[in-house]
Amino acid sequence: MNMLSSTQVTQDINQNLDIKPKNLSYLLDVLGLIQNIDNNIETASKMEEHSNTKEYIQILFGALRQKERLILEIRYGLCGEQKLTLQTAGEQFGVSRERIRQIEHNAILKLTNKLSTMTHFTLVGKMKKSIQRHSGVISSKRLAEELQDELLDVGFDAGGLIELFQQLELFKDDTDKSRTRLKYIGDLNGWSLKKTYDQEQIILASNRIREILSEISHPMQWVELYSELHRSDGLLTLDEDLALNIALCLSDTERIYRDLSGNWTIQAEKDTVSRRVLATLRKIGSPAHFSEIAALYNELYPDRPLSEHNVHAKLGRNEFVRVGRGTYGLAEWGLHNDGNIPNAIRRILITHNRPMSVAEISEEVLRTWRVSYASIVVAANSDARFSKTKEGLIGLTELGLTVEKRRKYEGENHHDQVVNALLKINKPASAQEILDKLYQLYPDSPLTLVSIKNLLYRQDGPFVRLDMDIFGLSRWGMPSAIPQRFRKSSSRTQDLLAAMEKIGNPVHYKKLVRFYNQTHSERPISEEYVLQILIRLKKDKGCVIGYGQGIYGLKSWDKQDVLF
Questions:
Q1: Number of domains in the chain
Q2: How far apart are CA 355 and CA 376, in angstroms?
Q3: Are 162 and 144 in contact (CB under 8 A)?
C-alpha cells in the first residue's frame, strides 16, 4: 500500500472538503494528539497486563515455602532450565527422591487451593482467549507457544507452567471450584472450557477420528475425513472448526499425522514407547521406582509424555524385572525374574541345597530385591513351600521341592485372602483392620482398602456388614444390617439400564447418575464410570443410543414416541 505524505493528505482534504488551511491544520493537530493518546493507552494497557500477570503469579506462588517453590521450578523447568528427575532433585537437596515427591505433591495441593480462590487472573484470561480462538480446544504445545511472550516478561517458561497446571486437580474434574472454567483433557493433552464446549463430544470425536483413519487404508483429505466424522453417531452437530482443532491436538501428540499435502493418516503402531522406557532404564543404570523412570522418560522424550501409570504398565514386559514394590530393573543385568519374595526365597534355598537362617536368606534376597527385612521374614513364614526346622532354620517342604513359582499365593484368590484375614482376627472388624491383617499374612498382596471394601460389600459373598464399616462372616451366624431389598445380586450395568427404563426418556448422563444414586445409595456410582458404561453399551452392545450433548437413550424405544 502506498503511503501519502502529510502535505499530500492536507491538500487532498482541502480540495474535497473545502476546509480552510488554518482550520485544517488545527484539526490535524487535534487528530494527531488523539492518535498519540490512543497509542499511549494501548501501550499502558499492555504494560498493565504484563504487570498483572507478574503480580498474580507472585501471589499464586507466594502460597509456597521457598523450598517448595524451588522444587517445582527444577522439576518442571519453570525458569527455562532443564527439568530434573526426582532422584537428581533429591541429591541436590540432600534428601530422598520420595521426600522430593512428597514436597512436590504438597506444593501442588497448595497451588490448587490458592488458585481456586483467585479471580481475574490475567494468564487464565489469556488461556481462555487462546481456547476460543481455536474453536474450543487447543493442545498444551500450541497453548505454551501462544503464551510464551506473555510469560517471558515475568521470567517463566510457558511450557513448564502449562505442564504444572496439568497436575492441578481443579483443571481435571468436572466441577469448577476456581470459577476459571478451564478444563485439561488428558486424552488429547489439550485444554478446553467447562460449560462452554461439550467435553464428551470432544473426546468422542477424538476417538472417532482415530477409528476412521485406522479403518481407511489410504490417506484422507480433511473434507473427506470431516464428512465421515460428521455422519458418526453423536457427532451430527460437531462444528468443523472444533473438529479440525481436535485433529490438530491428536497430531501434536503424534497419534495421527498430516503431511505437507494436507493428507491425514494414522501413525504406524510401533512399540516405540517400550523401547524408549528400556533406554530410559538403561540410562539410570540401576533398578529404579516407576515414578523415577517416568520422570526421566518425560525429560528425555518431551514429544510424547507418559503418565506414571502408563510407564508402570510397560514395565510388565519380559525385558523388565520387578525387584521391589514398584521398583524395576532389566533382565539383561542378570537380575532374577522371581516375581515375588517367596519365589526368590525358594530359588535361594534350591541354589544352596540346605536349610538356611532367616538372616542368611535376607542377605541373599537383598542382593537383588529392594524390600524390608520384615517382608522377607513374613514371606518365609507364610508360604506352604517352606517349613522351620527344630533349629529355627528355613527349609523346603515337599511342595517347595516341586513348585518353582507361585503367583501371589496360588490356590488362594483375593476373596479367599480376605476371608482368611477375618478368620485370623476371629471377630468382626473394620475394613482397615482387615487390610492390616491381610498385609501381615500376604505382604505381596496388591489389594488396597478400596478393593477390599468392594469385596466386603458384595451381597452374594460370605461377608456380613454389621455396621457402617464393621464386617464379619456369615458362617458366624450374624445378621446383616443391610435392608433385604438391597440384597439382590445384580450388575451395575443391569441396574443402570433398569434406571434408564424407569426414567422412560432420553436423559443426560449426569441426571442419570443422580437418579441412580438416589435409588442405589448403598452402591453410589461416579459420572465418569457411568459415561464409560454408556459408551461401551453404545459401541459394543448396541443397546444404547447417543443423541449428542451427553444425552443417551435405549435403542428399544421408538424415536417417534420419545419426548425430549
A1: 7
A2: 16
A3: yes
Q: What is the CA radius of gyration of the chain?
A: 32
Looking at residue 20, its pLDDT comes to 56
Strand partners, 356: 394
Assess if residue 249 is contained within a domain: yes
| Angle 244-249-253 from CA coordinates, rounded to 5° | 145
pLDDT digits (tens, 9 = 90+) for 242-260: 999 999 998 888 778 888 7
Question: What type of residue is 195?
Answer: K
Q: Which grid cell sits at 37? A: 493518546
Q: Where are the beta strands (DSSP E) in 201-317?
A: 220-221, 256-258, 263-266, 288-289
One domain, residues 42 and 99: no
138-159 pLDDT per residue, tens = 998 899 888 887 777 677 788 8
- Looking at the fold, whether 460 and 542 belong to one and the same domain comes out as no
Burial class of residue 377, CB neighbours in 10 A (0-12, 13-18, 19+): middle
User: What are residue 82's phi and psi, to 5 degrees?
Assistant: -70, 135
User: Crossing angle of helices 449-457/414-425, nearest 10°?
Assistant: 90
Q: 3-state SS string over 26-51?
A: HHHHHHHHHHHHHHHHHHHHHHHHHH
In sequence order, which residues have a C-beta less than 8 Å from that of residue 47 and are 6 or more positions away? none
Q: How far apart are CA 200 and CA 175, in angstroms?
A: 15
CA–CA distance, 440 with 436 (Å, rounded to integer): 7
C-alpha span between 299 and 289 (Å, rounded): 16
**Residue corresponding to grid cell 475425513:** 225
Which helix H or strand E contains 431, and what residues bound it?
Answer: helix 431-441
Nearest-angstrom CA–CA distance, 285 and 282: 5
**Helix residue ranges, H only, 116-157:** 122-133, 140-152
pLDDT at 424: 84
Q: Which residues of 185-224 are buried (b: 16+ CB within 10 A; e: fewer)?
A: beebbbbbbeeebbbbbbbbbbebbbebbeeeeebbebee
- Give me the sign of the Cα torsion angle 224, 229, 233, 239: negative
Asked which of 402, 422, 453 is the last residue of a domain, the reply is 402
The 320-324 sheet, strands edge to edge: 288-289, 327-330, 320-324
Same domain, 81 and 167: yes
CA–CA dist 551, 271 (Å, integer): 37
